[in-house]
Amino acid sequence: MALVSIxxxxxxxxxxxxxxxxxxxxxxxxxxxxxxxxxKRTGFPERALLLKKAALLLRRQADEYxxxxxxxxxxxxxxxxxxxxxxxxxxxxxxxxxxxxxxPEIIKTDARKSFVTFQPLGVVxxxxxxxxxxxxxxxxxxxxxxxxxxGLLKHSSNVTGCALAIEAIFREAGFPEHCFxxxxxxxxxxxxxxxxxxxxxxTLTGSTPAGRAVAKKAGEMLKKSVLELGGSxxxxxxxxxxxxxxVSACVNSRLINSGQSCIAAKRFxxxxxxxxxxxxxxxxxxxxxxMGDPLQEDTEVGPQARRDLRDDLHRQVAESxxxxxxxxxxxxxxxxxxxxxxxxxxxxxxxxxxxxDEELFGPAAxxxxxxxxxEAIRTANNSVxxxxxxxxxxxxxxxxxIAAEEIEAGSCFVxxxxxxxxxxxxxxxxxxxxxxxxxxxxxxxxxxIKTVYVK
Length: 455
Description:
Aldehyde Dehydrogenase, Chain A, domain 1, Aldehyde Dehydrogenase, Chain A, domain 2, six-stranded mixed beta sheet
């Protein structure tokens, strides 16, 4: 089966790649395991040096990678450059901190000496999505390689060019051959890869159904898995918030990557006394965002990554309107060949509508009115998802209390929109997945936390 990259802004085919046959996949797994056996014996300084070289390449070729992302999945080029820079950052972060994070931990017991050591697991399979085609991969690869693991990448078929470019970065940086390998395969081969005894663990970023399938197979094979799945992030804007600043943050978060981000703001929960003004400002700022060719520097909203994804988003919007939501902006598929969808604002959203119950993976916002803080918290938590959330209030202690104690999410920001940061753990609860990436927590997900006891 061929893997096809289609430019979502034009609908034209960019390139077709041949799928790697199962025999070749098995050979690559064996080669990755062989590379791991050598790589795990390298010292942290050598690993750090190579990660820093990867960071230099990412910065040097950022324009090239931004263009590739724009052409394969529609990311505006200025966001693509920022993504390449963030990948360089995570490489440098683990180069500078990985050895410290993985130092043996001495624990006093009745033994002459007892300690905990952190040993790499082996070959880790990463099943990655198209929406942040570089960042999602480096978020797994930088800590994984620093810990001494080898990596296999099964990327989304529509960003095969990005997958091969990432493999080339690690190769050019000087990592041993087969230490990081992109496998151009379709989803149907993932199960067999997980079953391979030389694959030690699997990490997936993607949809909840994909996560269930990978978790089931990993559980069957008794292999470690980490899942970062979807989200329907609630943003609570309380009555004492700086409304202008809050709305700007809400709009910018909703339109990250043209709305195609698991931690983009999705549900905006607003008390009745400020709801009218919130809606007015929100629509005004959404309307001002420029949608267009992702290769143009001033484009703020590009196309959706595929036409089928755009059409599914429109179905969710249309069904929510049919069930009683009011469309304040957008909500119509524009003419033309591209997979564009305009910034859209729905008001009067409530449980039972797709805009409330499901993840809207695109530039469509759901505004929900509540009477007070208590109802806002209940509404925020009334979701199968639990990835990110945000609180806006001038009372910082109030916001901190709600964020820390009340909201069911892996990350909760106060007076700022949710973003990932190499220094902070990232992941979700409920149907948003389990395990953590980034920080010292992430680098320890795929190591053997081994007790050593010396009498």
